[in-house]
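Hey forum,

I'm writing up a methods section and want to include a predicted complex as supplementary material. The small molecule is zinc ion. I've pasted the protein sequence and the SMILES. Can someone with a working setup run it? I'll credit the forum in the acknowledgements.
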Amino acid sequence: MRFKNLESYRVGGVGNTMQLEIPLPRTPDGRVYRYSPNENAHPRHFVLGNRVEGFKVPDVLTPRMTHVPGTPGTVCPYSRVLGDDSAFNHPDDVAAARDIVAHAAGVDAAEALHEMFADIARKSSGNKYVKFNTGPKPLAKPKPRFVRRDLLRELACDECGRDYGVFAISLFCPDCGAPNIHLHFAREAVLVRQQVELAGSLGPEQGELAYRLLGNAHEDVLTAFEATLKTVYLYKVANRPSGASEVKPVGNAFQNIARGQKRFAEFGFDPYRNLTADQLGMLTINIQKRHVIGHNLGIADASFAEHAAEARLGETVPLVGEDILQFADICKTTVDCVDAWLADGVALNHASSGKSLAAPIVKALPELKIGELGKLAVRIGLWASQNSESGFEDFISEDDLTKAFPDESIDNIAFAVAELAKDGYLRTDHLISRRIPRIRAVPELFIEFDPHAVKTDPASDVVSLVDVVLTKNGTVGAEELREEIGWPLRRFNPAFAYMISRIDERRVLSAGSSDYPARGFALADEDRVSLKRFADRLRS
Ligand SMILES: [Zn+2]
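Reply by user p_vandermeer:
Happy to help. Structure tokens for the complex are below, copy them as they are.
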């Protein structure tokens, strides 16, 4: 028995032992899930992308780095724990890899079984007592698909250029280990500047809205600032030598300058040491302002009036956009100082951090990349999807193909077709008289290429289709289903083929229709269960 599908993942092994490597599912922006092996590094999950194009990685470890970027090993962005890349595999991806292997083995087994009976049928032809009819080849089952999401906070390390995404606040670059806390705050400062500009663009009749926008911007600076100090402090606490005494719960200690200072003093560090007396005074006033804006509807109370010269008891506290930006700057100076402390005192390279502040690194739209397919194979896949009328097993003729790609040699086209066939997007039958085999599109092609070629997405359409099917009983016909959902044939068929691949083959009425991948199917309760779970997984 040959394991054609399984072997496509083979990277080594001998005899009956196959060593497989399953590619990790990627997020829409091409990042992969990673999960810190350190169980105390809450929330553990992050996503890792590629290096920003054109970024020149230094030849030697910079003083802020702890790991040579681009070499094996990953740094936990939350705890700086270094581990093997494989130790960072996300549990969801491990489960996905198992499903992919099970799918490939299942397809191989079904094909082998089909071949076996075809062989018996051939050998027994002429025997009048035994008649075998093997029927058509089993319908190609599309590969399982896994949805992976990007995370809200996306960063590109300014030391090594690696692109990644985290939840909330992380401290270190997962590739080079350099402290990246200043990048978080720089991003925050950019957002606050945009909020202030938005408020400034409003006319006098929208004064209330402008005040609210500025109030939010002010609050956001402070929240991010306090969260940063707290995260760094807790990291330092977690990394004390074993046997160190318990620390009191942090609570809201970092909402107050003196109390926060006292906490950091446990480590002989003052986060405010780079601030002038004026800046420290302004920081104090702004922390007070939050209390007034947030809890007192902007009306100054006695304790605030005591601190702020410009405030009179009972009057609305003025909020000026310029002041908020200045406040954000002071917080940023403090965070940069904390960041340098994490790098054993090596301060930021201000030229680069300034640049990232003014203009966040813009990612160029990447060329469509699908697995290991070459450029021509991707173009042919798109073309086949665009030119399909029924959205299911269309034949593609050699003439059409060579006409569509007149600048490509026949050898190149044959190579690209073989690539698409190897990855399961086409089915081919070799003909002696032709250089290019007879080609048929299979559901996998449409599921992969339709979103790019015809702007419909079978992987999300199938979810709507399952929702309709789950309201039904007994036998469901393809035609009636399509009429009910109201899609043209071209949109309906890829999603329909995808769906029936989840239904037990014995209940699929595969013969007797030239418009649809199957005439219909009988729905058993066990199919309902698998359809529902399948749709839930795609929906998540
Ligand atoms: Zn880095």
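Some notes you might quote in the supplement: Residues 502 and 531 are 6 Å apart (CA to CA). The chain has 17 helices and 14 strands.
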